Structures are given as structure tokens and as C-alpha cells.
From TrEMBL:
<dbReference type="InterPro" id="IPR002771">
    <property type="entry name" value="Multi_antbiot-R_MarC"/>
</dbReference>
<feature type="transmembrane region" description="Helical">
    <location>
        <begin position="47"/>
        <end position="69"/>
    </location>
</feature>
<protein>
    <recommendedName>
        <fullName>UPF0056 membrane protein</fullName>
    </recommendedName>
</protein>
<comment type="similarity">
    <text>Belongs to the UPF0056 (MarC) family.</text>
</comment>
<keyword id="KW-1133">Transmembrane helix</keyword>
<feature type="transmembrane region" description="Helical">
    <location>
        <begin position="107"/>
        <end position="129"/>
    </location>
</feature>
<keyword id="KW-1003">Cell membrane</keyword>
<feature type="transmembrane region" description="Helical">
    <location>
        <begin position="12"/>
        <end position="35"/>
    </location>
</feature>
<feature type="transmembrane region" description="Helical">
    <location>
        <begin position="135"/>
        <end position="152"/>
    </location>
</feature>
<dbReference type="Pfam" id="PF01914">
    <property type="entry name" value="MarC"/>
</dbReference>
<keyword id="KW-0812">Transmembrane</keyword>
<dbReference type="GO" id="GO:0005886">
    <property type="term" value="C:plasma membrane"/>
</dbReference>
<feature type="transmembrane region" description="Helical">
    <location>
        <begin position="75"/>
        <end position="95"/>
    </location>
</feature>
<feature type="transmembrane region" description="Helical">
    <location>
        <begin position="173"/>
        <end position="194"/>
    </location>
</feature>
<keyword id="KW-0472">Membrane</keyword>
Length: 200
């Protein structure tokens, strides 16, 4: 099958790590526990599958929308790099530029969307298409979906075991990784964009 031709373990791992850092499900454990206390038992399977489906659908439909409005993938990837950069700054500096934790429903909203499959995650998934094969990004999304399910299932246990201090350290570490990824994404796609215009 043609879709399997670009299969790469390295790209799958990178896609997983990038999306894992952006989703920051471990850092969202206190929020999840709070929502669980407010609304009762969260349907982990329903929330995880919905989030994964949203990401995969946007991965393909998002590109068609871009073509419809006349924006190329490289330009969108650069915009995505700025979004990832801002998310990384939030994680490293401990500030909130744009993050909503208020909820009026459980499981699907706000767990699946926008907590897991939010604007930053969707932008990142589409931005990855500029460098990676679709099959590898899909694998990365599926792995994250499984991880999200496991975290949602054991949110209370994780909060007790990990603790606030460890959560904060993890957030800073993934923030730095995300910052480096955003810079790489920007430089690679900016160079490609310049090259396209020169050739044009």
C-alpha cells in the first residue's frame, strides 16, 4: 500500500513526542481531576477516541481548507511554529496567554475538545505534514490517544503519585523540548518558502 511506503519509526516517535508535549495531558491532570469532581466519572474511552478522531480528521480536512483559501502548507507550518512557540513559553514561564479551563459539560467538552484536541494540537498536527509522512503522524496521534485514555482512567492515582512539584518539572522539560521543535519547524519551512519563491 502506498500509504505505508513512508513508514518510519523515527518519524512516529518524533510525531508522538511533539504532540505529547503540546497536548500536555500529564500537566492537565489537576484540571481533569477537578472536572471529574465537578461532573462525576469522566468517560475516558469516549473522550480519548473523540479527541483522536478530531485530530486525524483535521489532519486531512485541514489541508483541503488551506488549499481552498490559498495558503500553502509551509506558510501554515510557520504559523503553527509560532503557536507552538507561545505554548512552550506558557509551559516554561508558567504563564497563561490563552487557556480555557471552564467547563459546562464533561468527557467530550472540554476533555476531548479543547483540552486534548485544542487549537494548538490541531495546528501542530497539520504543521507536521510539512515534514513527515501521514502514516507516521497518524501513528503518533493513535499513540497519544492511547496515552490520553490511560491518563484519564488513572487521573486521581497519577495526581497522588506524581505530585505538584514533579508535574511542574515535567511541564518545564517538555516546554523546552517544544521550544526547540518550534524553532526547527520555523527555520525548515521558512527556508523552503524562500526557495519556492526564488524558484518561482
Amino acid at each position: 500500500m502506498e500509504i505505508l511506503n513512508g513508514f518510519s519509526i523515527k518519524e512516529i516517535v518524533t510525531s508522538f513526542m511533539v504532540l505529547f508535549a503540546v497536548i500536555d495531558i500529564i500537566g492537565s491532570v489537576p484540571v481533569i481531576v477537578s472536572l471529574q469532581q465537578k461532573f462525576g466519572q469522566i468517560e475516558a474511552g469516549k473522550a480519548a477516541i473523540t479527541a483522536g478522531a478530531i485530530m486525524i480528521v483535521f489532519l486531512f480536512v485541514g489541508n483541503k481548507i488551506l488549499k481552498l483559501i490559498g495558503v500553502d502548507v509551509n506558510s501554515f507550518a510557520i504559523a503553527g511554529a509560532f503557536v507552538i512557540f507561545v505554548i512552550a513559553l506558557e509551559m516554561i514561564l508558567g504563564i497563561e496567554i490563552n487557556k480555557t479551563t471552564e467547563a459546562k459539560a464533561a468527557s467530550i467538552v472540554p476533555i476531548a475538545f479543547p483540552l486534548v484536541a485544542g487549537a494548538g494540537t490541531l495546528t501542530t498536527a497539520l504543521s507536521l505534514r510539512a515534514e513527515f509522512h501521514d502514516i507516521n503522524i497518524i501513528c503518533g496521534i493513535i499513540l497519544n490517544t492511547i496515552f490520553v485514555y490511560l491518563v484519564l482512567k488513572s487521573a486521581k492515582w497519577l495526581e497522588r503519585k506524581i505530585g505538584d512539584a514533579t508535574l511542574m518539572i515535567l511541564q518545564k522539560v517538555f516546554g523546552i523540548i517544544l521550544l526547540a521543535i518550534s524553532i526547527k519547524l520555523f527555520t525548515a519551512n521558512f527556508a523552503q518558502l524562500v526557495q519556492n519563491y526564488i524558484n518561482f
